[in-house]
Write a structure and sequence with these properties.
It is built from 7 helices and 14 strands. Helix 1 crosses helix 2. Helices cover 29% and strands 26% of the residues. The strands form 3 sheets. It has a 9-stranded mixed β-sheet.
Length: 259
């Protein structure tokens, strides 16, 4: 912010008062996920992050913690495991999880690199997502096919990095042509993609899929909360649009479905 605002700068997936920027709007997707977490009554949550130990340098992480707190799920700094953004960092964080006297019900990773580093080590020590706990990650929408075919398939809040890049180039061209008189800010929409590692349960759609079969990817469009649970009103799958009524969908914890 101290740089002169005459510089032709465009921030990629960031924000600034003085310069043009393209960022991702994650509030809605985080709130949808938080509603499901609240309905499952999860409170023992661990967050794996590559941010600083005080979590102050990661805006998305701060946003996640604020929204969870609004849903009645406060997250302490002791529940936020800071590590390097690498497979090794994910494995180190996984060791910390295994050393906990009380294992988490839900693990949230701020990127899929940490998830890929943590999952194998945890599995080798009989801590398996979809059985002992659930997993939700942040990731790139461009990786959705890989994440959907991983075992278990990973639920994630998808960031459209390619779209952000395209919008940055568009702003750059307009800036070069002198078409921008003031800083312009573009926000792309994130998407909550539900796979096997963190999901809701329906009597019809999730059965008979299992850990070793590829479940349909649920692209959540809207969530309405009723007493006793969260109910999905509309969601997209690879096979088209699925609409659910209050009677069709109930939200359960992994403890109710294990085995």
């Amino acid at each position: 912010e101290k740089l002169p605002n005459t510089l032709p700068l465009i921030l990629f997936n960031g924000t600034s008062r003085n310069f043009c920027s393209v960022s991702c709007q994650t509030e809605d997707s985080i709130r949808q996920a938080a509603q499901i977490i609240s309905a499952k009554n999860y409170h023992n949550i661990v967050i794996l992050s590559g941010a600083q130990p005080d979590c102050s340098e990661d805006d998305t992480l701060n946003q996640l913690m604020i929204i969870l707190h609004q849903q009645g799920i406060p997250i302490s700094l002791q529940q936020c495991f800071s590590t390097e953004n690498s497979y090794q960092g994910g494995a180190i964080a996984a060791r910390r999880i295994l050393n906990l006297s009380e294992k988490p019900e839900l693990v949230i990773t701020m990127n899929t690199t940490l998830a890929f580093g943590a999952i194998p080590l945890l599995a080798r020590n009989d801590f398996i997502f979809t059985q002992q706990a659930e997993l939700l990650s942040f990731g790139r929408m461009e990786d959705r096919n890989h994440l959907s075919n991983y075992i278990p398939s990973i639920s994630f809040i998808g960031i459209p990095m390619s779209l952000i890049a395209e919008d940055c180039f568009t702003l750059a061209l307009r800036l070069a042509r002198g078409e921008l008189k003031a800083a312009e800010h573009v926000r792309c929409q994130s998407n909550l993609m539900l796979n096997a590692s963190f999901t809701f349960d329906t009597r019809s759609l999730l059965h008979p899929f299992s850990l070793y079969k590829i479940p349909p990817v649920y692209h959540v469009k809207s969530i309405t909360r009723y007493a006793g649970g969260v109910f999905i009103l509309s969601a997209y799958t690879a096979f088209g649009v699925s609409h659910f009524s209050k009677e069709d969908v109930r939200c359960v914890s992994h403890k109710e479905t294990s085995g």
